[in-house]
Amino acid sequence: RQMKRNYDSAYYQSLVQKLASRIPRMGIGADVMVGFPGETEERFRNTYSLIESLPLTYLHVFNFSPRKGTPAAAFPRQVDGETKNERSEKLRISGVDKSRRFRERHRDREATVLVESTRDKETRLLKGLTDNYIQVLMEGGEELANQMVRVKLTDLKNKGMHGDIIW
Predict the structure, then answer these.
(1) What's residue 120's pLDDT?
(2) What is the mean pLDDT of the chain?
(3) Which of 15, 27, 48, 155 allows an S-S link to 57, with CB 3.0 to 4.6 Å?
(4) What are phi and psi of 67, to 5 degrees?
(5) How many CA atoms lie within 13 A of 50 on its CB side?
(6) 142: which DSSP letter?
């Protein structure tokens, strides 16, 4: 209510579950703010439990930071930085696990990938995204930049997967 959102957690939970059941391969991400004024340990546990219960595949977790002149900057019960950092880390770990499990379900499947125009800085492999936002690294020449290619998703990488182009 303080953030003036026109929905509640029950609505959000229902919406995410409907989307996931209708489109099982869908990648569903969420932005999660930690430490909004008044966030108690119980409220955080409720948020964490909700996130854990949902078929989310990507979390963008960030700490609330007061902005001068905004109503929330003057709200009582500001959450201290250490608490926000601890809570954020817990959610980030959950997000990494959710992402890994989502990608694991796509191993040995074919997907269409939009190849980006720049290579991965670390590996120098081509990089691209599937239609459900899985980052894919693959061998190939510059002529594939900005093209759609079919790949077989193989190994899990740190934040994505390796893919073999299907010729």
Answers:
(1) 95
(2) 95
(3) 27
(4) -110, 130
(5) 18
(6) G
